Amino acid sequence: MDFSKIEFLLSVHSLKQLPPLELPEIAFAGRSNVGKSSLINKLTGRKSLVKVSARPGKTQGLNYFRVGDHFFLVDLPGYGFAKVPKVMQNSWQALISTYLEKRETLRCVVVIMDIRHEPKTQDTQLIQWLKQNSIPCLPVYTKIDKVSGSIREKNARLLDAGHTFNAEERILFSAKTGQGREQLVAALTRFLSA
User: Fold this and answer.
1) How far apart (Å, rounded) are the C-alpha atoms in residues 152 and 186?
2) How many CB atoms are located within 10 Å of the residue 100 CB?
């Protein structure tokens, strides 16, 4: 599957703006500043397709990227400590949960977590909610280049246990080195082909 033929389509701020149900979709979710934008850029082989920001809460809509005539990648707003008004956060949550629950073309939600941090309650809640609603979920632990091998393995095991995943169900990823990119492409290809 070629992820490089990609273009920004639109930023969705209400359900009425969603594109027609014509292509499968892969959504990317994660707390603010876990490396979501960097992961999408590395996946697509584009340096600045998705703007990387040091300011949490930069993504404020469901950002749709069209990959050829094959599928959409959907970048969801980060959750967690985004420095935006509570009213805006609440409207995101309503938009995101309705999108995730009702979108018939959604094939998988990639849940991105920073391997340097212990399991976070918001990630656990999202993962459990996805499982309860029978929405396929792919955990990806990012920033693996920032920790040594032994700490990486220890932290990955802690995240696995905290979110009840097996090692075979998740991917370790580095946007800096590209490690894990091939596994991510293979996993997403399986979801898109299902």
Assistant:
1) 22
2) 19
113 within a domain of the structure (yes/no): yes
The reply to whether 184 falls in a domain is: yes
- Identify whether 1 is part of a domain: no
Q: Which residues contact 87 (CB under 8 A, 6 or more apart)?
A: none
- Per-residue pLDDT of 24-42, as tens digits, reads 999 999 998 899 999 999 9
pTM of the entire structure?
0.91
Q: How many domains does the structure of the chain reveal?
A: 1
Dist CA 167 CA 22 (whole Å): 33
Whether 125 and 85 have beta carbons less than 8 Å apart is answered as no
In a domain, 172, yes or no: yes
Burial degree of 78 (CB within 10 A; 0-12, 13-18, 19+): buried
Residue pLDDT, tens place only, 100-114: 999 999 999 999 999
**CATH number for the domain harbouring residue 27:** 3.40.50.300
At residue 33, the pLDDT reads 85
pLDDT, tens only, 164-194: 999 999 999 999 999 999 999 999 999 999 8
Closest by Cα among 32, 99, 33 to 62: 99
Q: Residue type for 153, please? A: E
For 64, the domain range is 6-193
Rounded CA-CA distance 99/186 in Å is: 25
Residues in the chain, how many? 194
